[in-house]
Amino acid sequence: MRIKWVECAALSVMAALSVMTGGGSWFLALALGVTLLKCLLIPTYHSTDFEVHRNWLAITHSLPISQWYYEATSEWTLDYPPFFAWFEYALSHVAKYFDQEMLNVHNLNYSSSRTLLFQRFSVIFTDALFVYAVHECCKCVDGKKACKELTEKPKFILSVLLLWNFGLLIVDHIHFQYNGFLFGLMLLSIARLFQKRHMEGAFLFAVLLHFKHIYLYVAPAYGIYLLRSYCFTANKPEPAASSLFPTLPFQEGPLSCILGSKLLGCVQCFGQSALRHRLLSVGKAGDASIFLILSTTGHYSLFPLLFTAPELPIKILLMLLFTIYSISSLKTLFRKEKPLFNWMETFYLLGLGPLEVFCEFVFPFTSWKLKYPFIPLLLTSVYCAVGITYAWFKLYVSVFTDPPVGKTKKQ
């Protein structure tokens, strides 16, 4: 049944893309197409995070503010910053029109059909901020490359890589989280820095920190950039961002610094974080190569999150489609330059296929399954860690060896 939903999703994608005619309708079509796909993923498996957020809805709706961070009826206590608590509070006032019982703190593991619909649609609806942020970021892309075909334009490629991000699709719309909304704040903040609207960018990032504290480790990058490009520019021209971050293909500083910091994180979460590096990939072949290694490896590292049988063909199909598009589109964009992968990188990425076959189709039928059930997760983690470490090493080599943008030959 769920496989049929995926088939319907493919049809919806084709229908959405078929309306891309003239003007800027192509972006709307991409956004509409991915929204339809998200709706088709509503019946899929959801993790314990679904109950976490249902409990937070109940806490913020039924208890006074003074008890929000002390309520412990459920093991899933409210542990996000205040803005996210108020976000749940706002959602709860819509949730009551779907199913009042979901807002009862004592209804542990409550999951009615109306609760499922509300929570799934709440993620889809709040993704509107992410769509807007992607649109703003795409305005900042340097579109100097002359392309007759729409699908070869950097802005189009960037839009697809962001809006149709495989990591966000499976983590938010199957596993269940609100990363799209949060990443929307992040991307919108970056877009404002691109647009020299530094105060707005700083404000949006401060708001983001009050939604989810994990973004705190991006703060040093923001601080350094704002000090250099905004605070210390009195009575002198603003420094060229490319002089601070020489490897950024769009010749803008904040993105290189911020995205580099944001990509630091555990292997399990890397598929989500890698989308920020995507903004680098459409401007420079070297960055495109690093992105493809990071994205493919990071996305595969998310596979253990969806461990149920019905979701197996869904995650494989979606990742294959996204990976094939990523590689083919960026190869087309940089077809006049050297190959994106060397033989070792190609061999490593192709190795993900046999690894998946072993973990999903061979290991379950071996005698090791009962005695060593952790082996597939161990192999996945180690294999992905090798690829991500290599990509980071390659990125650092690029940072310290590539000449400044101003001194390189213009594309």
Automatic annotation (TrEMBL):
Give the superkingdom in one word: Eukaryota
Q: What is its main location?
A: endoplasmic reticulum
Localized where?
Answer: Endoplasmic reticulum membrane
Alphabetical UniProt keywords:
Endoplasmic reticulum, Glycosyltransferase, Membrane, Transferase, Transmembrane, Transmembrane helix
Which membrane topology term applies here?
A: Multi-pass membrane protein
Q: What class of enzyme is it?
A: transferase
As recorded in UniProt, its EC number(s) are: 2.4.1.-
Q: Which residues cross the membrane?
A: 117-135, 156-171, 201-218, 288-309, 316-334, 346-365, 372-393
Q: Which InterPro entries match?
A: Glyco_trans_ALG6/ALG8
The metabolic or biological pathway listed in the UniProt record of this protein is: Protein modification; protein glycosylation
* Similarity comment text for this entry: Belongs to the ALG6/ALG8 glucosyltransferase family.
Q: Which PANTHER family match?
A: DOLICHYL GLYCOSYLTRANSFERASE (PTHR12413), DOLICHYL PYROPHOSPHATE GLC1MAN9GLCNAC2 ALPHA-1,3-GLUCOSYLTRANSFERASE-RELATED (PTHR12413:SF2)
Stated name of the protein: Alpha-1,3-glucosyltransferase
The taxonomy runs:
Eukaryota, Metazoa, Chordata, Craniata, Vertebrata
